[in-house]
């Protein structure tokens, strides 16, 4: 399988790898995928005032495309509001990384990770209000 | 002792030095399995793909229409049995002069409810139009007629036959292993006329043994004969024979590139040979038919072909007494029988098939030796009577 | 100087030994005759070479040359063996037994036999990859005509108890086929002693060329097969088609070398394999797949838990190895062989097959060990699963949002 230059770049130098402390203010986590399917993504967002995502981190168990998709997403969501983040579509991710058809599921997973993280944030936020 | 002169190119050909040169790296250094995902494997895959394009280009086909097999026999088996497996049993029509690897698979189908009809040929070895028409009227499902016969070199009017076969809905296959490199073979054009499958083999055109192809119109359903891993679009499993396939690709490219010049030269040699043969009283089979430029199939009345080729071999000329088949078959050629040649004359059959390495001097020498040998044998025969 | 990538995929294919290539070349040039040509010296010369090679193949496995049939490779041999035997003996019964960890060439052929009306039992293996003889015995029925068990597994290298299975089959009148593609040159094969009826061989797994294989068909007691390729009646009618002389000569030479060098070579490779295993065993959560004792020394199949196989392959692209997950297709299917061992999917996804061979060096093994240490560490840093395990989470209790 040949990977695009962008996938290779994200794979070799993944952006924003890591985790936030669980107790940190405004942190929400989206965990999607399953080990049995060969990929699990954990996307964490740190949401500040006005619902703006100030920081994001990820960890991914999966192929190069899955790692690149989640790395890219951490870059994209930073500075966006959570509503704007939800507008990120898997097709944009796939286009940006030039994913081959067999790897489209990686971009779908990354989109799902955003949704899951936002859902987690809203759930926590609703509880805290 | 000087090296014997090889005049049996329809049995097999030496590999072109450039072909061997191209193959060698794929044995010891670039040895990957084309299914492996690492660099060794990907390099092998690229080489197979390139060879596929070369083979396709040589016959004007699309590279996705090329299915690699281990040989022409396998390709013919694949088409006959594989296409039949996807159809309800019906009528299979094959010419009476086909190679056994078309005829025998056909016979196997009888056990599955198929009926096999032989397409008769005329005295020159061409499919008889009247008999062909009669069989077409019975609406065969598969028709196979070889483009050029391996023994006589006689060419068939494949486009016309295929058009008629298509009009009754038959799948038409042609075995072109002897034709490519010697006459123009254009799959797109044949395909437009109704030919849906065509067989090629590397070792008949300056490539290695062990690689061949079925060029297949993708609209034809074919069941694989060899299962396990799904190589070649599922039509032929098994690790690709990368080196031989690479050799096959280049051999096709070279053969088609030099075909026109070679054919002209071979035709000159053939004429020289035929003049000499006729002068010493030989009968040339299919003489008046359009034939491959390299093939002369002849006999001397009352002279046994086996004996003659044995003497010629000892005198330094390698020719064939019939089709180069496996078993030492004492039966006279089924091709000549189909042409209505008497068994007595057929027993005398000798085939000379020329190649690019043959020269005028070799033909002169061959004729000289032949004349002397024939005279001696005829003298012996006369004494024994 | 180390040449990268380092080839550690000898079970996928081997390079042609230079000594083998050298023997092959003349048969493309001056000795190019068709072995079936009966009327001239070109043909006889080729035929003699073919018969000499047949003797070499027979010698490696202690068989009679007349029991060796040339094919285009192990896949064709397996097809001919299974379809040929099943079809020939179908009057006696319709039941066939094989194992879930067999090569695709066996499994796909069995699927085809099922379509032809045969019934096939696919046996499980124990978690070490070996067949349980009691389980095997238990599934044999009066109408069982054929059993097929591979000698050495291509993914995990385990050696099945062929001698014992042979005894059982012979006692029950079942034709026994063995796919020995991965076994030649690695284990001693004595067909005088083994009660095997049909055995498949490949040249390109034993330093011979691709495109050539053979099938052993026992003569005493005589085993019959229905031919699958028809035509000129080559190979005593078992398999028609022009014999590729140069490839056959290559297989003969490769098997001759295997016979002469197997002992010393296996010891050297065992040393290297043990060095690799030792070098990797200080990485946490590393599991060897398949039995370590009943195994060829050439194979080490390891799961690096919590690291996904494809990304691992990408990280170690300086090593030419295979991953347990067959990623060529759209779906990321974990290896069916590892699944049959009962490995959880994530371990099956995380496996790497290292297969060592004639040209593997100590320097290459040391490089591989260093590279794996570094890359496994990096990928685990990236892995949410690893993080969870470090935090003490039991992954089997997690509700995964399967997609």
UniProtKB/TrEMBL annotation, chain A:
One Gene Ontology term, aspect cellular component: cytoplasm
Domain of life, source organism: Bacteria
Pfam families, alphabetized: NifU_N
One GO-annotated biological process of the protein: iron-sulfur cluster assembly
Domain annotation NIF system FeS cluster assembly NifU N-terminal: ranges: 3-126
Example of a GO MF term: iron ion binding
Family: Belongs to the NifU family.
Function: A scaffold on which IscS assembles Fe-S clusters. It is likely that Fe-S cluster coordination is flexible as the role of this complex is to build and then hand off Fe-S clusters.
Stated name of the protein: Iron-sulfur cluster assembly scaffold protein IscU
Provenance organism: Accumulibacter regalis
From TrEMBL, chain B:
Cofactor or coenzyme needed: pyridoxal 5'-phosphate
Superkingdom to which the source organism belongs: Bacteria
The Aminotransferase class V domain, residue ranges: 5-365
Reactions accelerated catalytically: (sulfur carrier)-H + L-cysteine = (sulfur carrier)-SH + L-alanine
GO molecular function, one term: cysteine desulfurase activity
Keywords: Aminotransferase, Iron, Iron-sulfur, Metal-binding, Pyridoxal phosphate, Transferase
Protein known as: Aminotransferase class V
Family: Belongs to the class-V pyridoxal-phosphate-dependent aminotransferase family. NifS/IscS subfamily.
Residues in the signal sequence: none
InterPro entries: Aminotrans_V_dom, Cysteine_dSase, PyrdxlP-dep_Trfase, PyrdxlP-dep_Trfase_major, PyrdxlP-dep_Trfase_small
From TrEMBL, chain C:
Binding site for [2Fe-2S] cluster: 327
Name of the protein: Cysteine desulfurase IscS
Purpose of the protein: Master enzyme that delivers sulfur to a number of partners involved in Fe-S cluster assembly, tRNA modification or cofactor biosynthesis. Catalyzes the removal of elemental sulfur atoms from cysteine to produce alanine. Functions as a sulfur delivery protein for Fe-S cluster synthesis onto IscU, an Fe-S scaffold assembly protein, as well as other S acceptor proteins.
Modified residues (N6-(pyridoxal phosphate)lysine): 205
Lineage: Bacteria, Pseudomonadati, Pseudomonadota, Betaproteobacteria, Candidatus Accumulibacter
Family recorded in the similarity comment: Belongs to the class-V pyridoxal-phosphate-dependent aminotransferase family. NifS/IscS subfamily.
Main location: cytoplasm
Highest taxon listed in the record's lineage: Bacteria
Residues forming the catalytic site: 327
Reaction catalyzed: (sulfur carrier)-H + L-cysteine = (sulfur carrier)-SH + L-alanine
Pathway assigned in UniProt: Cofactor biosynthesis; iron-sulfur cluster biosynthesis
Span of domain Aminotransferase class V: 6-367
GO biological processes: [2Fe-2S] cluster assembly
EC numbers: 2.8.1.7
Binding site for pyridoxal 5'-phosphate: 74-75, 154, 182, 202-204, 242
Keyword line: 2Fe-2S, Cytoplasm, Iron, Iron-sulfur, Metal-binding, Pyridoxal phosphate, Transferase
Annotated organism of origin: Accumulibacter regalis
Subcellular location: Cytoplasm
Cofactor(s) essential for the protein: pyridoxal 5'-phosphate
Subunit structure: Homodimer. Forms a heterotetramer with IscU, interacts with other sulfur acceptors.
